[in-house]
Inverse folding.
């Protein structure tokens, strides 16, 4: 990716474009908007602030001080077709990341998830088509692999969904493929594995494992591993995800479906992840080096093992998973440590 991504950066700086980022106040969306602004692009952000925050927006604007004239944030909801049409007006590319991004929340509120992740995606695609957008890149998920048993997950085979979240993301992919075949709108779906990095929310019942554990370790509180700790995940830093999005927006595409894995290509068990994260936190809080996790029952709807096969993304997009896990964990810890003291997380951070 360094070679191909350098080409993309140069192309964008030579010929700036106008981008819509849905979910721009969220974890991944704010990083996408930041990188685009850093490359001299004009960015429209759309967010309903149900999970995204104005603090994230402030962070991204502070990171690119000369960007305020090139960034406009619209408060709106992808469930509202008019909000989508207004946001897409005059846009060249759409990076669609507004979603209910939680397996547990989807299990608790399947109707809300379907409205946001499926109907919202259809609204964005329809609005993009009407506006003459060049291409849409949609955030999908490795959850679509469901109960598939394979050493590594390849894009051409999926399993039975294990959660409403997985089903919703798979439906979004199929709608993207249909818009390409029927309406001629190029749509790329990126199947994210476990994305980590700064600005990921550590609080609340649906917190992702790395920010929840990071805050707990910094605060001297115990971390919970759901299950025996042998379950594995493919963790990838948010900076690599941002690069994958821009590569997907500009890469020459052949026949569809245009679906690509975005991960590291490596498995890390929850037990090993805990040890790596504890070491990273110990660099700023030495007493964390002796912290031990506690175990609880496994969570329903979650897969046992997950690892991305990256051959298709490497061949078509030029995607390479850099930087690595150690760098992503260190960046995450530094970001959280710099923001302490912070509101206390629940008494046990779990994954």
């Amino acid at each position: 990716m360094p070679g191909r991504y350098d080409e993309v950066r140069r192309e964008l700086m030579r010929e700036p474009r106008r981008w819509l980022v849905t979910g721009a106040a969220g974890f991944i969306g704010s990083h996408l908007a930041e990188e685009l602004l850093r490359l001299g692009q004009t960015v429209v952000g759309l967010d309903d602030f149900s999970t995204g925050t104005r603090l994230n927006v402030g962070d991204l604007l502070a990171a690119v001080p000369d960007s305020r004239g090139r960034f406009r944030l619209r408060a709106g909801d992808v469930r509202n077709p008019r909000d989508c049409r207004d946001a897409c007006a005059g846009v060249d590319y759409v990076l669609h990341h507004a979603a209910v991004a939680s397996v547990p929340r989807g299990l608790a509120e399947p109707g809300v998830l379907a409205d946001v992740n499926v109907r919202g995606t259809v609204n964005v695609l329809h609005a993009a088509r009407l506006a003459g957008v060049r291409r849409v890149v949609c955030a999908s998920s490795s959850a679509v692999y469901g109960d598939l048993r394979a050493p590594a997950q390849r894009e051409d085979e999926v399993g039975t969904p294990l959660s409403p979240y997985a089903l919703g993301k798979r439906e979004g992919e199929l709608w993207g493929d249909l818009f390409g075949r029927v309406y001629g709108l190029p749509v790329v779906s990126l199947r994210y594995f476990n994305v980590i990095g700064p600005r990921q929310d550590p609080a609340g019942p649906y917190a992702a494992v790395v920010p929840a554990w990071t805050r707990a370790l910094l605060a001297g509180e115990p971390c919970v591993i759901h299950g025996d700790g042998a379950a594995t995940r493919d963790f990838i830093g948010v900076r690599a995800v941002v690069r994958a999005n821009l590569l997907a927006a500009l890469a020459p595409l052949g026949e569809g479906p245009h679906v690509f894995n975005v991960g590291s290509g490596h498995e890390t068990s929850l037990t090993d992840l805990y040890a790596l994260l504890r070491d990273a936190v110990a660099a700023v809080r030495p007493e964390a080096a002796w912290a031990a996790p506690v175990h609880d029952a496994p969570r329903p709807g979650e897969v046992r093992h997950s690892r991305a096969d990256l051959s298709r993304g490497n061949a078509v997009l030029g995607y390479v998973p850099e930087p690595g896990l150690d760098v992503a964990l260190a960046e995450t810890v530094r970001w959280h440590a710099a923001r302490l003291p912070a509101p206390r997380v629940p008494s046990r951070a779990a994954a």
Notes: Confidence is low (pLDDT under 50) at residues 342-348. The chain is about 40% helix and 15% strand. The longest strand covers residues 135-141. The two ends are 31 Å apart (CA to CA).
